[in-house]
Fold this sequence. Notes:
The complex is a heterotrimer. Chain A is built from 5 helices and 5 strands; from the N terminus they run E-E-H-E-H-E-H-E-H-H. By secondary structure, chain A is of the alpha/beta class. In chain A, strand 3, helix 2 and strand 4 form a beta-alpha-beta unit. Chain B is α+β, with helices and mostly antiparallel strands. Chain B has 4 helices and 5 strands; from the N terminus they run βααββααββ. The interface between A and B is medium-sized, with 23 and 29 residues.
Amino acid sequence: MRVPIIRLGRILLISIQTDLTDNDALCLQSDLIKKISDTEAQGVAIDITALDVVDSYMARIINDTVCMAQLLGADVVISGVQPFVALSMVEMGSDLIRAECVFNLEQAMKRLEIRMSTRGDICLKRDNYVQ
Amino acid sequence: MSSDLIRVPINGISDIICARLTVRREAARIGFSTADQTRVATAVSEVARNVINYATEGVCTLRDDSNSDELHLQVTIEDHGPGIDNVVEAMRDGYSTGGGLGAGLPGTCRLVSLFNIESRQGLTRVTFSLIRKRA
Amino acid sequence: MSAKAFSKLLSTIIEHNRDVLNDEWTSHVMETMGAKYPGILNRDEIHRHADTYITELSAYFKDWNEESSAIQAGSRLGVVVSELSGDHAKRGIRPMDTALYVVAVKRTITKKLITTLSDSPDQLNGCVDVLGVLLDQLTLLTFDSYTTAREKVITQQSQSLLELSTPVILLWNNVLLLPLVGVIDTIRARQFTERMLEAITRHEGIVTIIDVTGVPVFDTGVARHIMKAVDAAQLLGSKIVMTGISPEGAQTLTKLNISFSNVISRVSLRAGVAEALKMVGRRIETINGAAQQ
């Protein structure tokens, strides 16, 4: 199952709706980084409300994705971590999510907008940049 | 109160999801809290992934061992793969041979009440239990 | 005569004298411990107890045989005795008095046997013997049931203490307060963390204040538990303000190399509340024209 990546201006929005297999997750990862580089997105919001288990492998995929996105110049905000998923993660002692976390997509968008407004490259219009 | 065994084969990546859904449902049926359901589902996911990575196929068995004083769910995950060379080493934080954050087994151990692992060439068996006093 | 015959005889004698035995036992118990537990033990109730107890004793001896002589907690006599002990435990009657209560019947019955069987010492001996064996077992059972019931009471109490001790308070919109009081062990840590996370999700707690004023000892264990809670809360998107660390606590933490670098810490709850409100864009102000103290 492919997770759709929605583009809203310079923000990419991903809302995961079902449990992901490892392959789905890896697929999403490569789709996302490709899209970031294609669209020069400055922000990525990922909502993981639907993930009710995040084991160390999934945590690593998420962290890798965050890291890759940052290397491509996009800020990442994660939303909707389930309370007991957070609990299991800290109890396992696996790596935590290395990105800002907020409650829902709406707040994620707000945070991204605030962070993007402080960027030096915000003034660059995509068109006159690429040409 | 105990009970029939529930067996879930683990033959491919998508069976990991199936196994953890089944264990979550069973934990809920026994009466564990949502937090505990998530703990045990995460533990199953973690161990099942090892099965896929190292042995390609195995089986996960759930048993309800509850009595009038406590809730008790026992999970056994077995495979017939090459086995883990050094179990003591594998249980140390930071150890991993097949990707993951190296928090796999020791992390799983911290999520559950009892944890046991035996491994030799051709058989690896991980058994863990979640036990809670009845309210 | 065999033990079985003695038991039969004993049963007949008990059955025959049940009213007398009942009265005597009741009076004996009232005399010896009625004054100790005023309002807890009363005559009517003891009388009712005595009635069932003596009936079951008689039934036990009537059906007595070698194999079934050991008292099981599940047998009818066993149930009567363990219920009684459990009941006593819950009402705060001391274990020694509970045992005396159960054993007193031996004295009453023995007295009756002496008068009834005065002309056949063999029978008297046999009956007293059988009675003694049973009462020894009943004493053990009493003790066991009493302890079990007590333990249950203690477990319940600690559970309700657990329930009471970790409230999560909605202090203001999106601001939660978690006052930690008492010793933080693994079970309590798990419990307050679960509750806090649930509350954060439910109320969208943008800021959570963890107040540790009531935590007596701040060591590595406690710090680790709190750090886990902080990490989990931050995964959900809540910021943490910690309040009420004592100077000694700060010293210990620093010596242990724990800095809580990802939380804002304020010495008083008052300062912490002000800080938390600011994070959600609020503040507490003096009302214009209000009386100045």
